[in-house]
Amino acid sequence: MHKRVKKAVFPAGGLGTRFLPATKASPKEMLPIVDKPMIQYAIEEAITCNIEEFIIITGKYKRAIEDHFDSAYELEENLKKTDKKKLLEEITRLNHINFAYIRQKAALGLGHAILCARPFVDDEPFAVLLSDDVIEPEETLLLDMVGLYEKLGCSILALEEVPVTEIHKYGVIGGIASEDGIYKINDLIEKPTKEKAPSNLAIIGRYILTPEIFGILEKLTPGRGGEIQLTDALRELLKKQSIYGYIFKGKRYDAGDKFGYLKATINFALKNPEVSEPFTQYLQDIAQMLKNKRHNEDRKSVNYSIPLKDNII
Hints:
The protein has about 325 residues and is an alpha/beta fold. It folds into two domains: about 5-255, Alpha-Beta Complex (Spore Coat Polysaccharide Biosynthesis Protein SpsA, Chain A), CATH 3.90.550; about 260-300. The chain has helices at about 40-45, 65-70, 75-80, 85-90, 110-115, 120, 140-150, 215-220, 230-235, 260-270, 275-300; strands at about 5-10, 30-35, 35, 55-60, 100-105, 125-130, 135, 155-160, 170-180, 180-190, 200-210, 245, 250-255. The strands form three sheets. The chain has a nine-stranded mixed beta sheet. It has a two-stranded antiparallel sheet with strand order 2-3. The longest helix is centred in the C-terminal third of the chain and has 26 residues, at about 275-300.
């Protein structure tokens, strides 16, 4: 009988350079998508999988994450007095959860961030959620992965088919399809060129890992970018244990990228009952404005000159 997955690790110690200057002194993970920071979406996703222990790997200037998930007595009392019950319920519904915070003293990569969680995880399987990989709340990706772990008893990686032109941005797997949407992995490469990529199946930010990964990470030498790469550690783990991949076919947003973040914000806003109607109208107005602008530009570019006929005296 496998141990149940009841712990989740949320790496949040990175520098967030793609969102500078906004992230100079504020955590990238606290950037809001509509009215909720992106890390909260990941926390709520883990809650639906009956995760009981939440371990957040933080770094310098990340104190806002701890404050966000702490109780806010003064604010809560104010909301009570002003009878703002809906808002009060929203900011207190995670108050019952206990978080452990571990400081990653240097941004040495995802593998190093996970290694920092070892004292709290100990010898249990655990989930890893990268909060800037935003998954639609109605999706069941992590829940499906937990179920697959309970069946197979080994590490499970979330995979997504990506265009060959994007393959260099991801860890990529080689493997054999064991059943629909499930691959038995036989190779992993961190950010390969398209010529060296074993497939177009990229690892995305959801993992179920066995505790044996810690011993490998501890001894691993820095890889690409001088960082401790999780993909390199998984490649070593593959020599000792089976690893399976689960293909995600739902909607994911790379909110660690400006364009992906904007797409997530727009799509979540369109589903938010408070703003969806006026926001939809606003987007329609913008679309019409752009259509009119293109039409006017096309009219200006038309050549109205009349060619001279040959042999006219």
